């Protein structure tokens, strides 16, 4: 019997653990975890890292973010299966190594895990469903982006909103609703959202022939996001304050990102553009660590965030980030 022509792949192959990890784009999850750590750390006045790590909601929020993020990555490929069959036939679904049905079920299960973990975080922290409410909006934003917004002009805004909510998810157990939606986490989340809008804009056509003007526009928005972080740091600038170190770090991050992006724009080659997008995504961890240090003055907290770059860097050598 011939394969259904409506399916992305006409060949059935057995899947491996690597195929599932590739489907989830596993290295990128560490950028989501760094968002939660940043939001959690900067929204509390407690600077005792071991004590914070001993709180159950700390781990539940990390699990929630991981579930929502990885579920979104899987559902992204579910909705893109037909497009990937033409542009990226090596991906797990169009290649036939993972079935469309199994990927759909897996993605939904991951999102459900994220929502359950957020609900559990509310229970143990007694924060009146704040975490679950933010996680629910985040889950809706992820599915909306994957299914509808991604191919529209609103796509970058949708992705930026997801990252904004992820920072706020990390801050969701800090107290009352008003406590959660306050500075500094609100300002830091806004800066990250703008940065990610720029990265997403830059990545719009990473698999094809990209417009240099579009790439330049995306990079410009990335720079605006970095400048917002710089403005936030300036509000706390004093002699020998953590903000001084944060501003230096932001300058180095900005210079590094601009240099790599400029090279990619000049070459305008899909492979180099994809690597540059991965590079920009990886720098989200450095941004989160920088703002954590800026707001808390704790080197240990900043180190707890930046250490996530190690597994992300090692994994991206074998598992593509985009």
From TrEMBL:
Main location: membrane
GO MF entries: transferase activity, transferring alkyl or aryl (other than methyl) groups
Record-level GO cellular component terms: membrane
Topology of the protein relative to the lipid bilayer: Multi-pass membrane protein
Keywords: Cell membrane, Membrane, Transferase, Transmembrane, Transmembrane helix
Stretches that traverse the bilayer: 23-43, 58-79, 100-120, 132-149, 184-203, 215-234, 240-259, 271-289, 301-319
Subcellular location, record wording: Membrane
Source species, domain of life: Bacteria
Name used for this protein in its record: Prenyltransferase
């Amino acid at each position: 019997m011939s394969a259904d022509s409506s399916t992305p792949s006409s060949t059935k192959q057995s899947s491996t653990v690597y195929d599932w990890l590739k489907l989830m784009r596993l290295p990128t999850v560490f950028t989501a975890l760094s968002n939660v750590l940043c939001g959690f750390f900067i929204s509390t006045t407690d600077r005792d890292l071991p004590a914070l790590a001993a709180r159950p909601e700390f781990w539940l929020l990390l699990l929630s973010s991981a579930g929502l993020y990885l579920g979104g990555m899987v559902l992204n490929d579910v909705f893109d299966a037909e497009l990937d069959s033409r542009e990226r036939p090596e991906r797990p679904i169009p290649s036939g190594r993972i079935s469309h049905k199994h990927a759909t079920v897996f993605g939904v299960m991951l999102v459900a895990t994220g929502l359950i973990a957020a609900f559990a975080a509310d229970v143990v922290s007694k924060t009146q469903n704040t975490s679950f409410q933010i996680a629910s909006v985040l889950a809706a934003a992820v599915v909306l982006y994957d299914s509808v917004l991604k191919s529209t002009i609103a796509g970058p805004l949708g992705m930026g909103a997801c990252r904004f909510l992820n920072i706020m998810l990390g801050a969701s157990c800090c107290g009352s609703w008003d406590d959660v939606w306050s500075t500094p986490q609100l300002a830091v989340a806004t800066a990250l959202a703008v940065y990610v809008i720029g990265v997403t804009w830059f990545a719009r056509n990473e698999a094809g022939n990209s417009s240099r003007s579009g790439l330049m526009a995306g990079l410009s928005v990335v720079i605006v996001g970095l400048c917002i972080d710089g403005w936030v740091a300036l509000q706390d600038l004093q002699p020998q304050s953590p903000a001084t170190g944060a501003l230096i770090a932001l300058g180095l991050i900005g210079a590094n990102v601009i240099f790599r992006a400029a090279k990619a724009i000049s070459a305008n080659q899909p492979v180099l553009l994809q690597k540059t997008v991965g590079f920009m995504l990886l720098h989200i961890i450095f941004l989160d660590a920088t703002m954590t240090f800026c707001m808390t003055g704790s080197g240990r907290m900043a180190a707890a965030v930046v250490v996530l770059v190690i597994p992300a860097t090692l994994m991206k050598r074998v598992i593509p980030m985009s």
